[in-house]
Batch of 4 targets.
Target 1
Amino acid sequence: MDAFVTRKKRKSSPTPLNDFCEDGDGDESTDFKLTLLSSLHPDLDHEALLDVLLAHEGCVSDASAALSLPQKQNITKYSKPGAQSSLRSFANPVSGDLSSPVPAKKSKLLSKKGKTLFLFDPLDIAEHTPCTVIHNFLPPEAANDLLRELLFESETYEKITFKLFDNVVSSPHTSGFYVGSEEELNDQKYEYLYNGARLSDVRRLTPRLEAVKPKVQEAVNREIQHRIATKYPGGKKLRYQCPRPWAPNAAFVNCYNGPQQNVGWHSDQLTYLGPRAVIGSLSLGVAREFRVRRVLPRTEMHPAGDSSGAKTTQNAVADEDSLRGDAEGQISIHLPHNSLLVMHAEMQEEWKHSIAPAQAIEPHPIAGNRRINVTYRDYRPEYHPSLTPKCRCGIATVMRVVQKKKENWGKNSLFFIRAATATSTSATMLVGTILMTTNNGWSLCRQVLLDVPRWKCSWQRWLFFLPMG
């Protein structure tokens, strides 16, 4: 160790750095390499150094050599916080003009069963996930002002509670809900239902949330059009995707206080957003991991003859969800401060997402160990609660996507959620069809009502949407 310390002081000699390349760095941690790299380049911040180190596969000498290049353009690129240089530049070169558009083709998913693939480059994220990421979205001072405003607001946020298997559970983080007008505020408090209950704390958009909204709207619509042109078949919107431009009119703000506050695998509720919903998510404060995974039907998880697919008890739900999470592998997206994530139209029906707990986090100079996440949403008027079908008990239903059976995969279904104070009547078998008016956004529906005990209402209906959602 003494010999190494002596060598470390000789900055003019590149020899010691060669000891920390691919053939000899297995015993040294990333933190150690970053410390060494920081001593050689003290003017660059921690995240920029980490980006360069990752781009050079952990080789300190190569990373230092790249940072020492005289070109000013390279230094500026690495100095941007939270953004990593594209790793595709280290792959096999591609001939031709990279700036010209290329025909869209289905990319092979790089994630593997039981493993997590970490993506940093926005181009890789757009290629292999249903998301796009924009780093340094707002001007730095505007992002910091919004962060300060929402940190103050978050002091009065509460955890969302809901019923799960007759147990009252609460979210692992706190949340606030914001709308643009007094009319929308009253509508949300007295008309809308979330997990079978109404929201008691609905607020008007803060001045800075209101100011940022048109910027998010413009960026999301731009990314939607780019996604359609480069990724969707025929350069057209997906079937059932909303035909009009995305127009956010509400925002959920989540506060994650510390590395252990998280949210498990889920898809967002589509009852008021409609099918093929798009969401714009702005991250502020501490950087956290946003993970996504493709949903696999049970038949793909358990091949024919595999008895492991026979679990049906409630106790097996958690185990099965974990199995489904590992079946195709997970993809981790690094979301630093001031980054905008766009969840595209295929996200909610075909993928699930989560915020993973972290072993440790690097404190943010303003937020400390807190992360603020603003999800702007477009509540469509054709899915207003006044148009939501109700079960025989008279309680509003919720729209969910059938994801577990391959023959029904991708279909939208309405399920009844029983409120805590509701009493249900006895149900009998009833099969029929209902033709609902097209201006409500629904088409021909098949109604199925199962014979169930009095205490358990299991009303269900398949939904068949119009082509334009």
Note: The chain has three domains: 2-85, 116-302+312-383, 389-463.
Target 2
Amino acid sequence: MPKKLIEIASEIVQTQVSLTSMSATDIAASLREVFSTLQELQKAEAEGIELAPTAEATGEAPAEQKPMLTPQGSIQKDKVICLECGAEMKQLTSKHLVSHGMGQKEYRKKYGFSMRTPLSAKSLTKARSKAAKQRGLPEKLQQFIEARRQKKAATSTQGAKEAGAAKTPKQTRLRKKKAT
């Protein structure tokens, strides 16, 4: 006894659910879509209509699919979705991006992220920020920046004094000529 279309559709959707996480509404929508597609195929077969072959059936490379998410939407509370392959993870690592033949800079540029946007889940970014603040990192960073600024100012004024003292006799003569 041949299987009914609804049984075939449910098997297909069960396989989809086992491979990706889907909500109940996604499952219902997928089941309806698969069932209607199977009905169309059955109707076309009964009427003897030949359907256009897909790129997969002809062996051609399928056209590159556009990501369904917006780049900003790919960075979510508890996960980041790679816009290249759709993998979900806590952080997009350099190692993962190398598998797509790009680095973090290229990924950010391709999808329009700013260079300062972390490629990690928002919860992970928040936890790291909180831990850094508990260790006093912002205050220590401010102190370091101020110390570096003072050191740079001291070396530049000292360098200017040394440069003034190191004038050659020729420079002194030229200044005297200009003054007269």
Note: The first strand starts at residue 80 and ends at 81.
Target 3
Amino acid sequence: MASDTKGPLIDPGLIPIYQPQIRSESSPQEQKIVAGDRDPSHAPEAITYAPYYSTPTSPYPSYSSPVPQPGGYDGHDTGGAPHRHRSRKRKMIILASLLLIAIAAILGGVLGTQLNKSSDGSNSADSSSTFQPPNNTSAGNDTTTASAVRVLDRTGIATAARADGQGMLLYYQSPNNSIIETFFPTSLLNTSSSTYRPSTTALLPISDIAPGSPLSAITYSVNSTLFRQLFYARSDLRIMQIHATASTSWSTPAKVSPNTDDQYLFSGSAGLCAMPFSFTADGDFFGARVYYAQKRNWVQELWWDQRRSGIDQVWTQGQVFSGADARAGTGCGVSWSGDEVYTSVWYRNGTTGGAEHSYLTNNGRNAGWVNTREITLDANEDFAPSTASAFAAVSDAASNAQYLFFEGRDGELKMVASAAAPPGPAEGSFLSFGPVEGGKLAAFYVGGSPVVANQFDSGELRLQRIARQGSVLANGTVVG
């Protein structure tokens, strides 16, 4: 879940940048010469050249110093003195050589000028800057120089806002099970590009993740320290976390779910969602909540209060949504209105098969969870979530709206909107946006429109920016 409205709960997302290797170390065409094993007597003779030449002396006393002649000996020479016609011939050769050199220099200068003009013309787009951002749609998203990033089939996908307001963090799993963190500037996400290239990419130190694990990410600030935190399922399906700050590297993975026999992710489920919380809209960060599809076929809440325990300690069990279908995913979000803070959770009803939406006000200080009763949504069979549907939600405080994305029974991506504060049932237009192929989802909000990330064509990621009225403002593939 991601929102662009509240600074205290968001992280600047400083990301490590791998510097390219020095070319001489990486290029197979540049190899070091191996030293020989011979002794110095086998080394070539050292030759020293004099700084000038002295007048040669003939070894024969009756002869003057010989003067080399151009051409072969013709039998007409006496005493080594050249004939006059030979002197003229040599002068003509020298003049001809000088003339050829001058002509070559002139031609070279003309050719060089033309090449420079051609080069200037082809690079006129770069003449105003020495650096082109990799996300510039005219350069960084050129499909002739980039291909779609390859992702694991059924990869988890997570998004989170960066605190400086400059863009979106996106996490996914590569085909070799590695977890990748990428960053997309807001300027890029606001374009109508067919490709989206991240400005930075980093590999996270996670080696125990289950293939196809769902992912969820949050960002927040504690005492001016900016955190980003990622959640995933370990190979044994325990819920795990890893975190980093602006000044520290990623932590060692730590377990979130308690050490009981039932605190495991439901196998194959997309149900994992995390969110930070505070008790007031302008209050300090207090902790985080995680909602996941539990193996006993319900949605389980886990929470951590940073005033009571360390971040790497096992978290506390909270609310149980016993009517949820754990085969499907779980969406969550936070919204504000004045001093009120609302926590929303979405899931599939295990009995009716419809979408359920429950919310909590002020973290339960005044009342418990309230169900919005999705009567209108339940009445539309085309918008019933599929059995294994993922859920993703994002809110827009400026227009008091929140958006829910999920997979319908027909296999297509669905979007419904509802009031954010206080949360209400889905209303207005219910929209479809083509097949999602059973993959997981993540959502983000930028420039007045939600952005949904989903897997496309098995091995690729796609970003769609959608207007509330249903028009697709952008639909692009993530490239590397």
Note: Residues 146-478 form a domain with the Neuraminidase fold (CATH 2.120.10.70).
Target 4
Amino acid sequence: ETHRIHSPMVVGVFKHVILLPVGLLSGLSPEQVEAVLAHELAHVRRNDYLVNLFLSLVEILLFFNPMMWWISKKIKAEREHACDDLALEMTGDTLSLVRSLALLEEWRLNGASLAMAFMGNDGSVLSRVQRLLQHNDKRQVAAKAFWSLSIFSVCLALLAFQSSPRQVSPPESRKEAVAAPVQPEPKWAAETAANAPAVAEPVHAPLALPEIPAQLAPETAPADTIPAEAREIEKEMRQLEAKVRASEIELRKKEQALRSKELLIRKESQQATQAKQKVLMELEMQMRGMEHEREMQESEFEMDQQKLELAQMELEEQQHVLQLQEEQLEQAKGEDLKQKLKAFQEAQQQLMEKERALELRAFEAQKKQRQQAFEKEKGIQELQNRHVQMEQELQMQEQEMEFKMMNLHHEMQQMEVEQRIKEQEVQARYRELEEKMTKLEEE
């Protein structure tokens, strides 16, 4: 696939390569892709690339000859027709080939082809489509031509038989009446004047024809009935062909509408999926941030615990000092005893206050740590629940998109089935009309 071309093409002389525009395969069905590849392989099979080079060389040498350009145009058109026939033989699906032609014409309108392409720069897409639609039923076309010629011959024979009892005088009188203003020579005037008595009676004879309708009615009835029936049958055949073309055009429009709807659904689903994935990434980032904060709080709590342990060790040392002072008090006497006792009591009271403050600080630190851990755990749990909910919504959205796509494919299949039923009905009606034409020919 490449973005430098707008329609499929074959390049290479010894090693052939089929190039396709970027995004073309996504817009075609498998049957249509098969038809495109079959057409390009037909070019390879026929060695059209070498023929195209030779034709280009001849065009350069004989550029001044208009007949050469006309012949070149016809060769290119017939080359595309031949490749269409080979592709039709390989695939056996006329509708897929016709629809691929119509789709690729839209691609070709975006830019000119760079080489021998599927669409054919010199071939009319409409003529190719009409030719493919008629190519599938050559027997019916031949039969239609045969019956038309047969009916025309029968009508001529009946008119010849009907004209025999009417005598020659009415046509001659009409010829004379028509020829009078065209040939006003004096000789002709003299001859008509000389023959006037003989022609006068037959001239009045056709005017008296309405007075004897009983004699002419049985003879003119078959000549008037058979051509009218044949014309009605041909008219109905044309109406059936127009109906088939109209139904194909309508099916094409519906397919384009369904494809645009499919692209819209895919686009909306992709946008919603990207938005939800973005939200999921944000939730994951928040969860990681909260886990990091929880780890930081745990490390801070450990540091506070270490500080409390150090303070506890200091209190133990002070208690040990107080015990030594208490031993000294036992040995002291008099005023010295009173002073040491008072200092001991003050030190003991301070130590108790520090111990209480340390216990209160440890209790508050534990309470704060538990509260923060609970809040962080709760926040992480909420983020996890939201993450799971978003994943479920994403899965539901994907399932909904798949369901919509299945509905679209079902609608397309139903449309194709309805189109096939219509085609079968038209073919059945066409066969009935052919049988009527056969009966008319036998009669």
Note: Residues 213-331 form the longest helix (119 residues).
